[in-house]
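Provenance and format

Records in this collection were gathered into a single text stream. Each protein contributes a sequence line and a token line. The two records reproduced below are adjacent in the stream.
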Amino acid sequence: MNKKDNLIRVCQIVTLFFVVIYLGTKVSFIFQPFVLLIQVITVPLLLSVFFYYLINPVVGYLVRYRLNRTMAILLIYGVCLVVCFAFGAGIWPSLRMQIMNFITNVPSMFASLQAVLEGWEKSGLFAYIFPETTDTFPQLTESLNSGFVLLENYARELFEFVSNFAMVLIIFPIILFFMLKEGDKISTSLTNIVPIRFRTDMREVLTEIGNMLGGFIIGRVVVNLILGILMYIGFLIIGLPYGLLLTVFAVILNFIPIIGALVSTVPIVIVALSQSLSMALWAVLVIFIAQQIQDNLVGPYIFGKQLDIHPVTTIILVMVAAKLGGIITILISIPAYLILKIIVRRIYRLFYKVRWENL
């Protein structure tokens, strides 16, 4: 009888859940202010979390040397301002010049690319590579146009991602300051929510999640910086135009799993191909070597066994995240999966492991 009552209760809860969802879709206008608020704070909050796990170890190091936590945070803020000014004085002028030259030369670059493709078609190269295809050039042009549209869409999302830069610049440092100052209190507050007998497990879960996120974020930054250095050195060796600009673009996009690496390759190949076929081949070779060093040498050394996630799982997560949302959803897909994995593993250990192993 108890089992039957429990089943009825579960069915009632599930039914009530779906009824609430259905009613919510009918009065969705009520939730618009909350949706707008979430959209406004999402980017600053994500940036705050990102820099929290980058800076918090340094803050902890300074606090251990008897420096007041607030003073340690302000000191780090001052160092960051100095670094920003140094970037503006040293690297930005060259990068800005490359951006302006790139924008100015885009029409001539595409004209050169079209001339190269037409030359290949006249020379019979397409017919040699694709003997069964009669209209190779139009198909290739259509494929390139589709690639440009995809690149444009992601570039537009990236632009929208940083378009509210002034708002982000105001809100993000404030959120980050209080996260760095009150980080331990947040963990304690979350621990006190659960019943007393589960607080030890909650504390361990939060510690594990914090260590995972810290390792993941710091590792991604280090790996991407090394990738950028390798690519830039390679572009300098082969003499690729706009090497610094293309490297910065690739490093930023490489934070987006899988898709970022593919999208960042498109402009590099286009710029190289507008020069010559040999330049394009050399550029692809540089990207391939840098990616192999990143994936097989640098990545495993930095991450080790910390990111226990299969490549197929990563692909599935990125595909699902791309369908559900945009760049932000893709960015948080892997950390969200790893957090959920830690929580589910602990719930299984607490409530189901002994029961299922004794079946």
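Adjacent record:
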Amino acid sequence: MASGPFPRLQAHSQGDSVVFHSPRKRSHRRVTALCFVAASLAGLAAQAQAQDSLSQASIEAQQTQAALQRRIDSADDATREALERLRRATLQADRLESYNAELAPVVADQARRIEAQQQALAQISTTREALPGEMREMVEQLRGMIEADMPFLRQERLARVDTLEQMLASDETSQAEKLQKIFSVWRTELDYGRQMDQWSGPLTGERAPDAKAGSDYARQVDYLRVGRTGFYYVTPDGHAGGVWKVASQRWEPLDRGQIDEVRRGIRIARDQAAPALLALPASISVVPGQSPTTADDKTAAGTSRADAPQADVPAPEQEQESAS
């Protein structure tokens, strides 16, 4: 069949019937199929591209989240380190505050001492000029105190004062050493007031008119001294004894019971008996409102021996001292 403006039909049998196909229609179907395939491919490409974009976005989001987590972890570490530093700083501040509180009184005391030393340094020239006269006065006061005191170990004590006076007149001893020796003798005298002592020696000193006559002064007697409160003696045979009265500067006789108390005190001083209270008359009597000297003058002049005040003389800590 000749071609013309109309397409040529093609026939083929399909069973008992004959089907005619137009070539134009088949081309149209091919184009449609191709378009569909192209569209499918385009859709698949777009879907693949979208999936790639989504995957990339997911990766980027994960990376961002990981970076953010690292920043958070880093911030947590920094925060923990900062908190640890703060804790250590707080503990150190507490320790320093406690240390400063303990040192505050020490520093204040050192400041007072420094101020006192500075004042002493400012007055050192005046002190140096006044020191020799002060030491001389201290030695003179020491001699006067010994001469007015109870006459125990008087020669030995006055010998110390004589040594001090010779030392003051010598230029071989420094001022500091002189002052130290003067203080040492003063401390010895002060210690006598806290000691209980006993020794044997000849009886010296004036006796009261009513004291028994005899050969007491020709014999050795046993002395007992209880601080500066009482000074006593008894004869070795125990028949006589006396108490020294500071106001009258003489011995007053003791009765039999008081002599026994003195002998007991001597045993205590020798560590032969336990410490105990001694019922003995005191060498110095104190009356309220009067000086010791005035009180003793009144006792010696206006009362008898039986009316003299009695005192429980304690036996203090003793220190043995012997004298010939």
